[in-house]
Amino acid sequence: MALPAFVMFVFFGIIPLLGVIVLSFATWNGITPTIELTGLTSWRAALSNPSLPNAIWVTFLIMALSWLVQTPISILLGVFMARQTRYRGFLSVLYFIPLLLSSAAIAITYKSLLDPSFGIGAGLGIEALNQNWLGEANLAIATLIFVVSWQFIPFHSLIYQGAVRQIPHSMYEAAQIDGAGRVRQFFGITLPQLKYTIITSSTLMVVGSLTFFDLIWVLTAGGPGDATRALAVQMYQQGFQASLMGPASAIAVILVLTGLALSLLLRRLGGRSDESQLEGA
Amino acid sequence: MKRRNFLTLSAGAAAGAALAACGNEGPGGGSGEGSGGGGEASYWSLSGEPGQPYRQAAADRWNKANPDAKITPTFFQNDAYKQKIKTALGANQAPTMIWGWGGGGLKSYVDAGQVEDLTDWLSQNAAVKDKILPSSFGAATVNGKVYALPVETVQPIVLYYNKKVFEKVGVQPPQTYGDILALIPKFNAAGIAPFSLAGQSRWTNMMWLEFMLDRQAGSEVFDNVFAGKQGAWSDPAVLDMLTKVQDLVKQNAFQKGFASTVADTNADQALLYTGKAAMMVHGSWSYGIQKANGGKFVADGGLGWMNFPPIDGGKGDPTNTVGNPGQYLSISSKASAEAKETAKKFFSTTLVDDEEKAGWVKSGGVPVLKGADSLFTGDDAQFLKDMAAIAAGAKTFAQSWDQALSPTAAEVLLDNIAKLFQLQVSPQQWVDNMNGVIGK
């Protein structure tokens, strides 16, 4: 039954992708009826754009920071939720809620809450909450990472929760007989057993962070200045604001290739995925 | 929603363009409503106060009188609309009537053959043309031909101030730029932001540059930029102006967090009418927004306004103003003949009738239609008279830079303005960056 999925993927994945590749070798302002093929002109324009290095830096900074923040918290929450037998279903549902909200809605809400003049700090009269959260370069990045984590940690926690519950109980029993404590068990058994889950979750995080657009667009629109202008934002601004569809498509192709390369790299890191995860099985 | 439209919309601009390149004649009705039969027309414009109710009212009036040739309006937020309309044009899904700001954006539509030439139609319908202020046709004209009908209001940008805040702090409204500089520390000391600014929207910051440069050096510098003269930004007045702007930022002339404040949500206006900020440079449409959102603030005489004050020793004529000489409606060249006919009838009847004129006056704006002065009565009379006087008395009424330039140059301009206000670029770097896109 893979055919319908394949057809959908071709229609909504492959064809637009080919369109973007063609566009990246063209010059088009987005509104003329004809699209002119101009070889590498758009690629040159995109790669020589003085704001490209900053966009690449911001993209990888957001990628690294969001991975660093989300992964440890997600693993710990996952382990905690797997252990927790009472209310586990209820808590899992609760944790899952942020993921059900649309990014735009989350961003609008946080934008209102964090407004220095009309936000939660001003409303409750708490001066400490009255920082310039989105109007100062470093704080804006930090705030962005916080909102991203708030939205996606629940999802990754669930993945880890499922993985932790797959670990055979006998291993923990054996460890207990050998006199290993909780912490030792976590580092000796849980973490090594989660190896493949970490690879999977990290791939989702890393590739997903390449395409962060809606959150950034609503929260900061790439600002202040260009402090949060990741590649996806740069692509949008080039294409839809500056009417440079060619260079915008070139950036899109770069994003696709980066995503592919990163997924492959993470797979390689994961070693051979066909070896059994179960000791002695 | 028709299947083809659904696919075009979903597969994005790239696939849409591929389909469009195959000679797919998009329907006259936009946003996937299918091809409107019998001369039905669609119309996209901006949402929100103060304009939306009067745009809706015009469509309603027309639909009541012409039940068999309905006009369907759709409204979008300002910043989102600018991109939405381009995407729609590229995918052959444009509405029959395209709302815009004229200038460079309109020129890009003209170059792409997307909008109708209205020159002949206007000369055949001289009565229509005669009802509209002649000064508003400039931004509708590309290569000597008119491609849009000026509609709605003349919108100079002015300096607003909160009278109550001025009273509370015990200071007088500024007469010169020197006064402004003297006021900044006083308001900061009182815990009130001297100026409200929606820095995330970028075009708001641009209004400052427009006025500072004009007051400093007159309108010539930007005229040269507009004319595509190489190195036009290198005028020493530009460096001086940019340095002054950065000094304002350094002296905390704008509210905390201005870089993340958005104009689309009217947060900048809210700062002014709630008294968290003392002054604000904004377009004349802000009056209508503050009237609608500010409770009794405007009615109780809390709002003051003036033309941007002169800079001591500046060469610019202090009567000069910048802003929007009008708003502009174009007709999509891809629309069906019947829909075009409907749009033209709408142009020549509803959009120039007395109710339209009265409506825009009621919104707190000066209409582009002649002879509105007699309507300036009631609470808004003084504001309307002042705006009309600023617009009529201006030696030069310059169009907003980002609207006058091409979209490509405008984006570089707005980007550099945002960085300037973040102190990310020096005035000299700003000049060099901007000289690089002259004429593009």
Provide structural commentary.
The complex is a heterodimer of chains A (281) and B (440). Chain A is an all-alpha fold and 281 residues long. Helices cover 71% and strands 1% of the residues of chain A. A two-stranded antiparallel ribbon of chain A has the order 1-2. In chain A, strand 1 and strand 2 form a beta hairpin. With 440 residues, chain B is an alpha/beta fold. In chain B, the strands form three sheets. In chain B, strands 7, 8, 9, 10, 11, 13 and 14 form a seven-stranded mixed sheet that branches. Chains A and B meet through helix 1 and helix 12 of A and helix 2, helix 4, helix 5, helix 13 and helix 19 of B.
Give a brief description.
With 281 residues, chain A is mainly α.
Name the descriptors:
heterodimer; A: 281 residues; mainly alpha; two-stranded antiparallel ribbon; 2 strands; B: 440 residues; alpha/beta; seven-stranded mixed sheet; five-stranded mixed sheet; 45% helix; globular; disordered N terminus
Q: What's the number of helices of chain B?
A: 20
How would you classify the helix and strand content of chain B by structural class? Answer: alpha/beta
How many angstroms does the end-to-end distance of chain A come to?
32 Å
Q: Which shape of chain A, going by the Cα principal axes?
A: globular
> Can you give the helix content of chain A as a percent range?
over 70%
Sketch the major β-sheet of chain B.
Answer: 7 strands, mixed
Mean pLDDT figure of chain B: 88
- End-to-end Cα distance of chain B, whole Å, is 39 Å
Low-pLDDT runs of 5+ residues of chain A are: none
Strand coverage percent of chain B: 5-15%
Unreliable segments of 5+ consecutive residues of chain B: 1-36
What do the pLDDT scores of chain A average to? 88
Helices of chain A, by number, come to: 13
